[in-house]
Amino acid sequence: MKSNFIQKIKHALLSRTPKGNITLLLVALIMIVPVSSCKKSFLDVVPDNVSTIANAFVSKTEAEKYLFTCYSYLPTETDPTYNVGLTASDEVWVEDPANHIRSTNVLQLPRGFQNSSDPIANYMNGTRDAAANYKAIRDCNVFIENVSDQTKVRDLDIDTRERWIAEAQFLKAFYHFQLFRAYGPIPIIDKNLPIDAPIDEIRVKRRPVDEVVSYIAGLYDQAAAKLPLTIRNEGSELGRVTKAAALSMKAKLLVTAASPLFNGNPDYSSFKNKDGEQLFNPAFSAEKWQHAADACKEAIDFCESQSIHLYTFPTPTNPLSQTTMTQMSIRNAMSEKWNDELIWGLTADNNINYNSFFQSMCAGQYDFNNADAAKSANRPLLGPTIKMAKMFYTKNGVPINEDKTLDFSNIAELRVGKHEERFNIKEGETTARLNFDREPRYYADLGFDRGVWYMANSPTKTDEDTWWMKARGAEVGQSSPIPIAGFYMKKALNWHYEWATVTYTNYPWPEMRLSDLYLLYSEALNEAQGPVADVYTYVNRIRARAGLPTVQESWSNYSINPTKYTTKDGMRSIIQRERALELCFEGHRYWDLVRWKAAGVELNGNVTGWSISENSPELYYRERSIYSRHFVIPRDYLWPIQESDLLVNQNLVQNPNW
């Protein structure tokens, strides 16, 4: 069932006429050039429709519509053609030979087609599959300015007025964060300028990284002070922000700012504004990590006080094995709508059409246990890579190349599923060594050939003799192509999906959930103080939910590097891998690799997968190269500003190497 909040946003955007009550803010940046020519830019900071703005704040009803406009710029993460964090990462690869989905823009980022003349995913002006974040910020400024004026919206009570202003402050902070994460030092648009503002004020400049971070953090603090603790009117307000969301997103901002890309990065020591102002602080600061850790802990304590906790699958009427119960806790932490782990779920524009499109590429139309499933035009062309499959731990909780008790030197070696493995792999069926002896998250998150896939509509009503997957060439047929590497994103498919009718269950995109916050805290604390007790505590909570031993137990007993977890460097590696596994397919991986300055290694090289067109296991399980991924270092660590915008505002400087 769709949230009424989504419908309100759509109504606010689609029901406007020339005589309507809400007109989106259009503003113009004036450039001094011969004669009277001018050109608009993403940084337009002067409104050119002042006479119509007042109409949006004559009543509570009209003002709320404008607030929904501010929400409407939130990213559409359930459409992979917009989701940079997922589609540009090394978790997945997208292939579209028949052009069923757009083959340009975000899908082309990992192929090396980013440019400065017409940038892909231009977060500044909203072109090429991105939201117009500066336009969003201007709309937030308009809302805050007008609703803060007690002489306007006279039928608005003080508590609602304060809450709405706080929501707009949160959104303004988030849109600045989206820009900061991609571009680094950005212009701060704290308020819109009057129409008669001097030209020098209109030509805004980029601000140093530390100033940008301080400004965004301050907005989150202001918002947190007035936001509601929880959403009480769930029927109409789910998706609107809370204090927990503000504290958590502030924590994420500070962890990002403390990370190697932004904290003492020598690559940008000479990066300056045209007036010589340094845009990156060249000195590393350990204090930034401690500040981030403190913010994470504050957010965790508050979330837990509001009964936000790691999701566990409730005991069903029909009994399930503990193996399946663990997997369902892992899967549903992402795809069970409004579950108790969710801190902030995105709903604006994430309507059923986008959500079903995303899930269709997770499910596909293949033969489950010879079921007479309906065929459709669904094209599951987005799928995990073998690199991602290799990244998951063994059943002992350590990487496959570190486990001293299990041999994964030949991942394509054929084995037959045994009775005791029947909840992970179909008993009696042949599949690859890579699919055996893996951690529960492997079986919860990945769909693979001969893998078991329990769903709510299991033909046996339990996980015994339930659905299992056939994913070899002729078994699937041309009407339902297999993702190019042979794996599916099982985790992202809600477990109530109906194969026969191709019916999807909508769920909010998990922009922030508690496990993300736990890992941010462990990371920041480890960087600030080394592997102290809390570093282990919060990682181990996530591992326990995932059915794994503690970090200490796993490495001490099973790893060829038994003391790895005792050092800051070793624990850093463990935490970074935990983020990759726990948060896979949720749009974090690309941005994590960038802030860690690891993208140059991880986002270059060959993408590999199984030989999916083959029918026999001997031929199918051959690892083949599919494409070569491209990430140019150090250039691609920061997004390019469009060249035409640099001409409009000559105070702006381009990011290095573009």
TrEMBL record:
Keywords, ordered alphabetically: Cell outer membrane, Membrane, Signal
Cellular compartment(s): Cell outer membrane
Record-annotated RagB/SusD domain positions: 341-658
Pfam families linked: SusD-like_3, SusD_RagB
Domain of life: Bacteria
Xref: InterPro entries: SusD-like_N (IPR033985), SusD_RagB_dom (IPR012944), TPR-like_helical_dom_sf (IPR011990)
Keyword Membrane in record: yes
Domain SusD-like N-terminal as annotated: residue spans: 42-253
Broad class of where this protein is predominantly found: membrane
Family: Belongs to the SusD family.
Protein name: RagB/SusD family nutrient uptake outer membrane protein
Organism: Mucilaginibacter angelicae
